[in-house]
Input
Amino acid sequence: MKIAITAESTIDLPEELLKRFDIQILPFTVILGDEEHLDGEITPQDIYEYVAKTKVLPKTAAINGETYKEFFEKLLKKYDAIVHFSLSSGISSACRNAQVVASEIDNVFVVDTKSLSTGIALLAIYARELADKGASAEEVFQKVSLRIKDVQTSFVISKLDYMYKGGRCSGVALFGANLLKIRPCIALKDGKMGVHKKYIGKMEKVITTYSKDILSEFNNPDKKRVFITYSTATPEMIEQARKAVAEIGFEEVFETTAGSTITSHCGDNTLGILYINDGGEV
Output
């Protein structure tokens, strides 16, 4: 069975990893003022410059049903089945749109990852490995679904400005966080974002503490791979995260940059460590 593994651009994988794991993507739309751009055509740097100049946060648009239908039907001309990985239904309507379309087309399975960024990638890569070993699309869907709850997706935000402008925190929280230099650790639980911990101080020091805290709290990792994903980060921030994951002994450490959709909501100077915390394949 020839299975297509697909995802939205919110998977945040660079082209070389998309090719390596044979994952095809469908882009979200990023809106700057009156102009619409596909995620991937517009860069995070474009977003930073736009926000700095206009003080207005870009908007993002979920993929609609018609676009999913065209995407799936085109792929099914070359593949026997599709397993699609969608941004958490708890933070976007994209997943529901994809599920509605899939219910009307045979052999399309939509996974609500309850995650974002490379948390999605961890599941999609696992799916590719299963498919390459000969699993059917339904088997891939079932096995992947068992691991969703154990995807450790968290990140530290330097400033809450972008989340405030996007309506995800109050003005009071923004003022207090910036005044006290609070760096919140945002984590996904049951598909929704929430503050997991709060740190204070310079980001380099915060990342050191965050890395140790996360790896200590979620201490049963699948050591096959881990992602260090950031919007922007200083070399010191990246090095601290690398040191922490090196102590665990992950076989592969991928360092990736967040795409434009995710960047639109978290802003610059944001870094996360992501892995599956279930000890290995289920």
Observations:
- The mean pLDDT is 90.
